[in-house]
Amino acid sequence: MRAEDMVHVMAGFFIMGSLALGVFHHPYWLFLTAFVGLNLFQYGFTRFCPMTVILKKLGMRSSCDVSLTTSN
C-alpha cells in the first residue's frame, strides 16, 4: 500500500471514529472531524499533507517510489 492510499484509509477511520464519539460520548469530538476535513480541503489546493510526511519518515513508500521500482 502506498502512503497516499494509507492517508485516505486513516482519514476515513478518524472521521468515522470521531463522528461516533461525537454522537455517543461528547460533542467536542466533532472538532477532530472538522480538523481532518480541513486538512483534506487544504491538501486539494496545496498538495501538502502532514500525514504523508510522517508515513514517509516511518518507511512507507509513496506513489513516486512505487512507480520507479515497478516500471521495469
Could you walk me through the main structural features you see in this protein, from its secondary elements to its overall organization?
The protein is an all-alpha fold and 72 residues long. The protein has one domain. The protein is built from four helices and no strands. α1 runs antiparallel to α2 (30-46) and α1 (3-24) packs across α3 (50-57). The protein starts with a helix and ends with a helix. The model has no long low-confidence stretch (mean pLDDT 87).
What are the low-pLDDT stretches, counting only 5+ consecutive residues below 50? Answer: none
Q: What overall form do the CA principal axes indicate? A: elongated
Cα-atom radius of gyration = 15 Å
Please describe the biggest sheet, giving its number of strands, its sense, and whether it closes into a barrel. none
Number of helical regions? 4
Structural class of the secondary structure composition?
mainly alpha
Give the DSSP E fraction (strand runs of 2 or more residues): under 5%
Write down the domain tally.
1
Oligomer: single chain
Q: Can you count the beta strands?
A: 0
**H and E string:** HHHH
Mean pLDDT: 87
Question: Helix coverage percent of residues?
Answer: over 70%
What distance lies between the first and last C-alpha atoms, to the nearest angstrom?
19 Å
